[in-house]
Amino acid sequence: MNKNPHNLKLVAVDMDGTFARTDYTYDIPRFKAVLSRMKAVDCQFVVASGNQYYQLRSLFPNYYDELSFVAENGAFVKDKTEVLFSADMPRKAIEVVLDLCKDYPEVKNVMCGLNSAYCERGKVSQAFFDLTNIYYPRLEWVADFAEVQDKILKFAPTMPVEKTEFYVELFREKLAGLLVPTSSGHGFVDLILSECHKTFGLKMLVERLGINPDQCVAFGDGGNDIEMLEYCGLSYAMDNATEAVKQVAKHQCPSNDEDGVLVTLDRLFPNT
Fold it and tell me: Which residues contact 231 (CB under 8 A, 6 or more apart)?
């Protein structure tokens, strides 16, 4: 039997709500087995997420250097051991975001840098910091975002869930020409440079590998996965995905809590 019937050379997976279960676990032995089969046919596994690189790699201890990462929604791209790209937000864009968020105190902001992510003391609670720390293992308190000396990759504001769309539109209008809002829903938005998104990172890896989008498969569940699902020749929306994602993806697969990605990869890369 052909162990790569679709001639796939790249598998891109979102993390939250897609590859990882709700409790942030996954079937490690099953994944290692399919990864071995993928490597045997020269297919690269790519983690494409809005989360911090250090958080993502912690999920693959001892073998994260065998994988590629499109982290921070495309603002940081690493192919195995080599960093290919890291964004550097212009000072003007940073200042506009900081001024805008001052007018909306219910928005809790996280500044995401190359070396660490940051929360402003007095602006958010310790509970918010602790929750953020799960997704950004490198996280520091600062007195003022304006004083941070780091290469800024993106901002990750959080707002009341029911106001997510309101703030997406507000950010789109107020930050036009500077940054683009992308949302996975549920009150979480990333403010990124227009050229920095998951597909930007995937294209970089595709060119590096000398392959084409038809040889790629993507899995996702949220709005920030749509471009990636459209770009890849084969695409799957999780059963728990939003309707917008399901409309874009070519196929559906079981939910993240049913190991939908691994179920599908076992079929795409059969054992015998």
Answer: 199, 202, 203, 213, 216, 218
- Beta-strand ranges (E) seen in 95-143 are 111-113, 117-120, 139-142
Going along 56-199, which residue ranges are E strands?
68-71, 76-79, 82-86, 111-113, 117-120, 139-142, 152-155, 180-185, 188-192
Tell me what percent of the residues of the chain surpass a pLDDT of 70: 99
> What count of other Cβ atoms lies within 10 Å of the Cβ of residue 71?
27
pTM: 0.90
Burial of 226 (0-12, 13-18, 19+ CB in 10 A): buried
Determine the pLDDT at residue 6: 84
Half-sphere exposure of 67 (CA within 13 A, CB side): 24
Q: Which two tokens stand for residue 203?
A: 């294209």
**pLDDT tens digit string along 86-127?**
999 999 999 999 999 999 999 999 999 999 999 999 999 999
**Which token pair is 12?**
């891109």
CB 217 within 8 A of CB 12: yes
128-158, pLDDT tens digit by residue?
Answer: 999 999 889 999 999 999 999 999 999 999 9
CB 159 within 8 A of CB 183: no
Q: How far apart are CA 180 and CA 55, in angstroms?
A: 23
Closest by CA to 220, choosing from 249, 191, 243, 181, is 249
How far apart CA 198 and CA 212 sit, in angstroms, is 16
Say if residues 154 and 190 touch (Cβ distance below 8 Å): yes
Q: Does residue 46 sit in helix, strand or coil?
A: strand
Annotated catalytic sites, by residue? 14
